[in-house]
Amino acid sequence: MTKEQFILAIETSCDETAVAIIKNGTEIVSNVVASQIESHKRFGGVVPEIASRHHVEQVTIVLEEALNEAKMSMEEIDAVAVTEGPGLVGALLIGVNAAKAIAFAHNKPLVGVHHIAGHIYANRLLKEMKFPLLSLVVSGGHTELVLMEEHGKFKVIGETRDDAAGEAYDKVARTLNLPYPGGPHIDRLAHEGEPTYKLPRAWIEGTYDFSFSGLKSAVINTIHNAAQKGEEINPQNMAASFQESVVEVLVTKTKQAAKEYDVQQVLLAGGVAANKGLRSALEQAFEEIPEVELIIPPLSLCTDNAAMIGAVGSVMFENGKRSGMDLNANPGLDLEQ
């Protein structure tokens, strides 16, 4: 790459309005995120209609802030990248239409990006990727093991058959009367407790697939049964037991797949990558396989942000991928295509 390349990226797939500017695919020039957690807290989850309205209010403000922080104008931008899916259709539409308007007004190429590819590429903002690599993607809507043999090519070798890990965290947190989002609260409580409750682990032998529905149900049933008998549940111990079950399955399968596919790197990706229990368990597990480099992004790059979308957008732009002005939100976008 001779000339410096600047990508302006927009992410609005759920409840964060984010705009970033990425230099040469690996360097964050600016990364602005407007979170909506406070607005959704009282509902115990993301309300799509409210999320969309917030995106409409925030997107131009966040865009201006990202350009100001970078001390750049649109003339210096090479392309506009945007999350086209998966996500909440109304939320995605705001970002896609904002990106199309900006690209059209300033005559810039447009690149539609897959949200999960973004989470994986957040790691490239720390270290250059070495292939083949394996990524463990754990978020509110996704739990997947993704194999990559080269830039921009994704092969899902394992995925959840029911609830995603983050979804199970939120539902268990709600049953324990913890505030939304539940993941960080369970993680915090787990460190204060001991895994004293016997909870199931779904191994789904012979595959790298995951299942957390049975575990979630077991936790909810244990809590409800105790309430009916007038017994106390220790929330710290329940959180620790639940987290141990989730983390053990995630780490064991990731380690097995890393060995089987003889990968050079393992990347952690997605919102649940912020979980301290998961981070430390992976670090311990991969100390035993020194030939595999484990990369864990900082907390700011685990949750939804636009820097990660810019990192993917940069690779796609270099590879000649372009989206037309007919680009639409695609809530069911397939990672492998």
Task: Describe the protein's topology.
Elements (H helix, E strand, L loop, with lengths): L5 E6 L4 E8 L3 E9 L1 H5 L6 H23 L8 E7 L3 H17 L4 E5 H7 L11 E6 L4 E6 L6 E5 L5 H11 L6 H9 L22 H16 L6 H26 L4 E5 L6 H12 L5 E3 L11 H12 L19
Q: Can you put this structure into words, describing what you see?
A:
The protein is an alpha/beta fold and 337 residues long. The chain folds into two domains: 6-121 and 302-318, ATPase, nucleotide binding domain (Nucleotidyltransferase, domain 5, 2-Layer Sandwich); 129-296, ATPase, nucleotide binding domain (Nucleotidyltransferase, domain 5). The chain has ten helices and ten strands. It has helices at residues 37-41, 48-70, 89-105, 115-121, 165-175, 182-190, 213-228, 235-260, 276-287, 307-318; strands at residues 6-11, 16-23, 27-35, 79-85, 110-114, 133-138, 143-148, 155-159, 265-269, 293-295. Strands 3-2-1-4-5 form a five-stranded mixed β-sheet, sandwiched between helices. The chain has a five-stranded mixed β-sheet with strand order 8-7-6-9-10, sandwiched between helices. Strand 7 (143-148) and strand 8 form a beta hairpin. Helix 5 packs across helix 6. The mean pLDDT is 96.
